[in-house]
Amino acid sequence: MRTAKLSLVLRQLRDHGPRSRARLATELGLTRTAVSALVAELADLGLVRAAGVERGGMGRPGTSVELDGAAVCGIGAEINVNHVAVIALDLAGNVVAEHRIALEAHKLAVDEVLDRLVELIERTDDDVRASGAHTIGVTVGVAGLLDRPREVLTVGPNLRWRDVPVGSELRARLGAAYPVSIENEGNLAAIAEAVPGDPNRQDILVIFGEVGVGGGIVAAGRLLRGHQGYAGEFGHMIVEPGGRRCGCGRVGCWETVCGLRALLDGAADPDDPMRDPALSLDERLAELNRRADLGDTRTIAALDAVGNWIGIGAAMLTNALNPSAIVLSGYFAEIGHHMRPAIEEHLLAGVLAPQAGGTRVEFSTLGFTAAVRGGAAVALEPVFDDPTLVAPPRAAALLGGDR
């Protein structure tokens, strides 16, 4: 019961921001004495701190409290076709460390990719400890179909991986320093976009575009996984029968017409400098934006064509699920302002309900960090479930800096 009440207070501060003890007591249906004791315990754990004076209402102003949590971090990591990336967030969502390496994962051995990721995770954990915090857990997102109970990537079409036991391989490399969990990267991106406490982000579809296209479904604030955990593989809806062959082996998948490869094929010839493998993804997107801003007709036509297909697919999903918002992430967010008119036109035309059933098109502000941020949030979730998992700072000091 005590743990549950500590969790209630901590989640209320996460979801709704700083609050006085009196306000917390009213919102949670607890006595002020009980809340004061809970806040004191959370402060002793290093998870909350004083946040100034809360004014308004009757009586004397109260001192508000807010999440602190600088002593504990969650690490999110990602294996994608073009990169591996890692981020560490503290309990309040602040970035403590961040690392990313560009690589062509589909051209490398699985062991090499995993080794590079582990190097980044260990470097990030070193940064966390140097900041005076400790890592509570690591969640790794992978691109492809994941058998979550076994933590095996069964099919990664664009990585060209099959039946890779990602969970056991990473644990063997990392040891028992902290809990490690594995998740689909699209699901992690969706978790990052479903902002706790924001009523406009509780029923959303997140569509993440890079070489492949994936995403996640959030319904009533909870991730929808599906019967066997494979929900969200939007990129493999068949939208163009007889079209281009996909990396999954089928023909006409959505990602063949709106993935990054489709855009680059439409915007630039093979010998165009923008197709140089040495260019990073950010550099390629910056060049696409530059050309579109200058009015280059071929670039604009390619963006319109991809925007049309995004809108067609988004309409299919909206007819089925009627989200409050479709959040476009990954490369879609970086150049989406050029595609918005085409996307919205086809969304409105393709949805049966008036005004697309109230579904809005939004662009992520998280860039390519959505999946790793979602991973860090998942890694921190056990602390919100049971704040006593975190040793008080004084006890941690006695234990020393051991992992």
UniProtKB/TrEMBL annotation:
Against InterPro entries, the record matches this protein to: ATPase_NBD (IPR043129), HTH_MarR-typ (IPR000835), ROK (IPR000600), WH-like_DNA-bd_sf (IPR036388), WH_DNA-bd_sf (IPR036390)
What SUPFAM superfamilies does the record tag this protein with? Actin-like ATPase domain, Winged helix' DNA-binding domain
Provide the HTH marR-type domain boundaries: 8-51
Entry similarity comment:
Belongs to the ROK (NagC/XylR) family.
**Name of the protein in its database record:** ROK family transcriptional regulator
Query: Native species of this protein?
Result: Nocardioides endophyticus
Lineage of the native species?
A: Bacteria, Bacillati, Actinomycetota, Actinomycetes, Propionibacteriales
